[in-house]
Design a protein that fits this description.
By secondary structure, this protein is an alpha+beta fold. It is built from 16 helices and 30 strands. The strands form 7 sheets. Strands 22, 23, 24, 25, 26, 27, 28, 29 and 30 form a 9-stranded antiparallel β-sheet that branches. A 7-stranded parallel β-sheet has the order 11-8-5-2-1-13-12. It has a 6-stranded antiparallel β-sheet with strand order 14-15-16-21-18-19. Helix 6 runs parallel beside helix 7, helix 9 runs antiparallel to helix 10 and helix 12 runs parallel beside helix 14. The termini are close together.
C-alpha cells in the first residue's frame, strides 16, 4: 500500500480535566453488567450536520438582556449576568456572521448561586430552566426565533455527573450512583432511562436540534448509542418550520472528550463500528495542531509548520467510518487564540500580525470537512486585557484568570451593551475587518459543499512546509485551498496534472482569475494569506501527483532483524517509546513491548506490532526522563530518515500516523555528543 508521507503532530495535554464546569472527575463510569442495544449512526443526520457552523456562548458570561435574571458570580472576568434574553437579542448578529446554529452552555436549574452553579455543569433539575438565566418561555422563544432565522439550537447536556439530590423526571426517575460520576446501568438502576428521558424531553418540548455532550467519557459507549436513538426517535415525532419548510429537529449530538491524541476520543466516544457510541466529537487533536501552527498551545508549545496541519488531517484515518469530527479553535475551557498569540510573544492586538494570524487560522477552519464551531468573541479577535502568562493555581480562581476559565469574559455584540445600563459595543477597525472577513468565509463555506464535506487531497509542492495546499471536491464543486502559515510571500508553481485542472482558476473572494500557461499555473500568495480557488475546468482524473511512497524504509534504521549488542550503548540507560498510544498511559508507562535494545553503532531499535490503524504522540525517553528525544520537526514521517533532537518537557513530542496494521521498527541513531541524531519509523516487510 502506498501512503502519503506525512504524519500528525498532536498536543499532549498533561493534567487537564475534561470538564466544562471548572471541576470534574476523570474516573471511568461504573458499569454493572448490562447488554446495550447497538444502533448505527444515522447517515442522513450526520451528512446534514456537516453543514453546521455553530456559534458557542458561555451563557452566564455572554450578554445581559434581562436584569431580573443574573448570577452575579462565576468563573472568569465577565459581568456574570448573561441570560437567555441576551442570546435572543444576539440572534440577528449571529446570523449576520454567516453561522447557522447556536450552542449555549447548560441552562438547567442548579438550585444555587455559586460560581460552580453559574457554569451550569452541575445541575439539580434537568427539567427546569435556571431562573438565573431566564424562564421556560424565554427558552422557547429563543428556539423559535432561531428556527425562524434558519438557525439550529443545540443544548449542552451533562449526562455523567450532577450536583446531587436530583429532581425526579416526569416519569419519576433519578440517576443512580455517586454525583460524579453516576452509575450506568444494570437492570437495577434508572440512570440510562433517566438520561434518555432528559435528552428526548427537550427535543419534544422545545424542538431543540441536538446536544453537546459534556465529559462524554463518563458515559459508556453502549449508553450513548441508546441515548442517541432516543433523541432521534423524539426528533422524528417532532416538527417545526424552517426556511418555509416543515422539518424535524436535526438530532445532532457532539461529544466533548478532551484528548489531544485522539485515542480516547475513538475508544470512549466513537466506539467500534459494529456498535457506535457517539457519531460526532470535537476534534481536539486538530485544535492543538492549529494553535501550535498559528500561535502556541496553552503550555507554550508552538512554531510548527504547515505539515503539522496536513498531518492532523491524516490522523483522522484512525477514526471509525462513522466518525464526523467537529472542528474548532476555542471554547470556554481553553485560552483564547488572541491570548495564546501573546503568551507565545508572537503578536499583540496593536500589531497587524495579530489580526493576520487570526484570519489565517479561521480561514483554515472554514475549509474543514465536517461541522465547525466558533466561540463567541473569536470573530472580533477577543482577548483578556493584561492577561497572557499562566497565573498560578493559588490565585488564578480569585482573579478569574485560570487557563480553564479565563476565556469566559463578557460578550461583545455589535449594537448591544454587554450588560444592562452599560455602553453599546461598537467594533474598532481591526475587529470589524476580522468579523467581516469571517462572515465572508462562512458565506463562502455555506455555498460550497466541497469546503464542508469535500474529499481532500494534499497537493505536494516545493513550499509545502509553509503553505498548506488542499484539493477539495464534492461532485462538481472543486476548490483549491491554500493557506500561508508564515509571514513570507511565496510563488507556488504547479502543473495542470498536479491539481487536476485544465482551465482557469477563480479566486472566490476577489473574483480574480489565474490562467493556465505552458501546462501549469503560477500562484502568488502573501504572508498569512488564504486563497480559495475555484477550479473552473476540472479534469476527470483529478490531481495526478501520486499518493505518496512505500511504508518500508531503507538502510540500517529500517532493519527489522538487526541482532542485539550487549549493554545500553552510549546513552548508558534503558530507553522506551513513551506516548499516548494504547497502553502508553499518557506517556507515563514503560511497557516491555516498547522498550529499545541496543544494536551497535549508536543505533537503538524496537519492533512494535501495531494491531490497527492508529495515530499518537510519542518520545524516545528514559524511565526517569533523564533523556528525551523526538523528531526535530515534531512530525514523524513513515519510512523516512529524519533529524532527531532533544525534546525535554511538555509540548515537545513528535507524533505519527500508522496507516495500516503490521510490525514497525522504531529506530534512532544517537550522535556522539548525545544531543540528537537521526530516527526512522519503518514497516517491516
Amino acid at each position: 500500500m502506498n501512503w502519503s508521507k506525512s504524519a500528525i503532530s498532536m498536543a499532549v495535554v498533561f493534567g487537564l480535566s475534561a470538564c466544562g464546569g471548572g471541576g470534574g472527575d476523570d474516573t471511568p463510569p461504573t458499569t454493572p453488567e448490562y447488554e446495550y442495544q447497538a444502533y448505527a449512526c444515522d447517515a442522513d443526520i450526520y451528512e446534514k450536520a456537516k453543514e453546521l457552523r455553530i456559534y458557542q456562548v458561555m451563557t452566564e458570561a455572554f450578554i445581559d438582556g434581562d436584569s431580573s435574571h443574573d448570577y452575579n458570580d462565576g468563573y472568569g472576568t465577565s459581568h456574570h449576568k448573561g441570560d437567555l434574553q441576551g442570546i435572543i437579542d444576539s440572534l440577528d448578529y449571529i446570523q449576520s456572521l454567516g453561522l447557522n446554529a447556536v450552542w449555549m452552555t447548560p441552562i438547567f436549574d442548579s438550585e444555587g448561586s455559586s460560581k460552580l452553579d453559574a457554569t451550569g455543569y452541575f445541575t439539580r433539575n434537568y427539567f427546569a430552566i435556571d431562573p438565573n438565566f431566564g424562564t421556560m418561555e424565554q427558552a422557547r422563544t429563543l428556539v423559535n426565533e432561531a428556527h425562524a432565522r434558519g438557525m439550529y439550537v443545540i443544548f449542552d447536556g451533562v449526562f455523567g455527573h450532577h450536583k446531587g439530590n436530583v429532581t425526579p423526571s416526569p416519569n419519576g426517575l433519578t440517576p443512580s450512583g455517586s454525583d460524579n460520576p453516576v452509575s450506568y446501568p444494570g437492570t437495577d438502576n434508572d440512570t440510562l432511562e433517566f438520561y434518555k428521558e432528559v435528552a428526548s424531553y427537550w427535543v419534544t418540548e422545545l424542538g431543540i436540534d441536538g446536544w453537546r455532550l459534556d465529559q462524554a467519557y463518563q458515559v459508556p459507549i453502549g449508553a450513548w448509542g441508546e441515548i442517541r436513538k432516543a433523541v432521534e426517535d423524539a426528533s422524528k415525532a417532532t416538527t417545526y418550520t424552517m426556511n418555509g419548510q416543515t422539518v424535524n429537529p436535526l438530532a445532532y449530538m457532539v461529544a466533548e472528550i478532551w484528548d489531544g491524541g485522539g485515542n480516547q476520543i475513538r475508544d470512549e466516544g466513537y466506539g467500534p463500528e459494529a456498535a457506535p457510541g457517539v457519531c460526532s466529537a470535537f476534534d481536539f487533536p486538530m485544535r492543538y495542531s492549529i494553535t501550535q501552527t498559528y500561535a502556541v498551545e496553552e503550555n507554550g508549545s508552538g512554531g510548527r509548520d504547515a505539515t503539522n496541519l496536513n498531518a492532523a488531517f491524516n490522523a483522522q484515518i484512525a477514526n471509525p467510518s462513522h466518525a464526523v469530527p467537529n472542528g474548532f479553535i476555542g471554547n470556554h475551557d481553553l485560552v483564547r487564540f488572541g491570548d495564546l498569540l501573546q503568551r507565545g510573544n508572537i503578536a499583540e492586538p496593536n500589531e497587524q500580525e495579530y489580526w493576520d494570524r487570526h484570519k489565517a487560522a479561521y480561514a483554515f477552519l472554514s475549509a474543514y470537512s465536517g461541522p465547525i464551531t466558533l466561540y463567541y468573541g473569536e470573530e472580533i479577535g477577543d482577548e483578556v486585557p493584561d492577561f497572557a502568562d499562566q497565573v498560578g493555581n493559588t490565585t488564578c480562581a480569585d482573579l478569574g484568570l485560570c487557563d480553564d476559565h479565563v476565556a469566559r469574559n463578557s460578550g461583545q455584540v455589535e449594537g448591544l451593551a454587554s450588560e444592562q445600563g452599560g455602553s453599546v459595543f461598537s467594533a474598532n477597525a481591526n475587529q470589524a475587518d476580522l468579523r467581516d472577513y469571517i462572515s465572508s468565509l462562512m458565506t463562502l463555506r455555506a455555498a460550497n459543499p466541497a469546503l464542508y464535506k469535500g474529499e481532500r487531497i494534499a497537493i505536494n509542492h516545493d513550499d509545502a512546509a509553509n503553505v498548506f495546499f488542499d484539493h477539495k471536491q464534492f461532485e462538481d464543486n472543486t476548490i483549491l485551498f491554500l493557506n500561508n502559515t508564515s509571514s513570507n510571500s511565496y510563488t507556488i508553481a504547479v502543473t495542470s496534472e498536479d491539481i487536476g485542472s485544465d482551465g482557469q482558476l477563480r479566486n472566490m473572494l476577489s473574483n480574480e482569475t489565474i490562467d493556465i500557461a505552458s501546462g501549469g499555473y503560477t500562484i502568488e500568495i502573501a504572508g498569512f494569506e488564504s486563497l480559495f480557488l475555484e477550479v473552473m475546468s476540472a479534469t476527470d482524473d483529478g490531481p495526478q501527483q501520486g499518493n505518496g511512497g512505500s511504508l518500508v524504509g531503507t538502510g540500517p534504521l529500517a532493519d527489522c532483524n538487526a541482532p542485539d549488542v550487549a549493554g545500553n550503548g552510549p546513552l548508558d540507560k534503558e530507553m522506551w517509546i513513551r506516548g499516548n498510544y494504547n497502553g502508553g498511559d499518557g506517556f507515563m508507562a514503560t511497557p516491555d513491548s516498547h522498550k529499545f535494545t541496543y544494536k551497535g553503532d549508536n543505533i537503538y531499535q524496537v519492533v512494535v506490532n501495531e494491531t490497527a490503524t492508529t495515530s499518537f504522540g510519542f518520545k524516545f525517553a528514559a524511565s526517569d526522563w533523564s533523556s528525551e528525544f523526538a523528531s526535530s520537526t515534531g512530525v514523524a514521517v513513515i519510512a523516512t530518515e529524519q533529524a532527531m533532537s532533544i525534546a525535554a518537557g511538555e509540548g515537545t513530542e513528535s507524533s505519527v500516523v500508522i496507516p495500516e496494521a503490521g510490525e514497525y521498527v522504531y529506530s534512532f541513531e544517537i550522535n556522539d555528543a548525545l544531543t540528537g541524531g537521526t530516527m526512522m519509523i519503518s514497516k517491516c516487510e
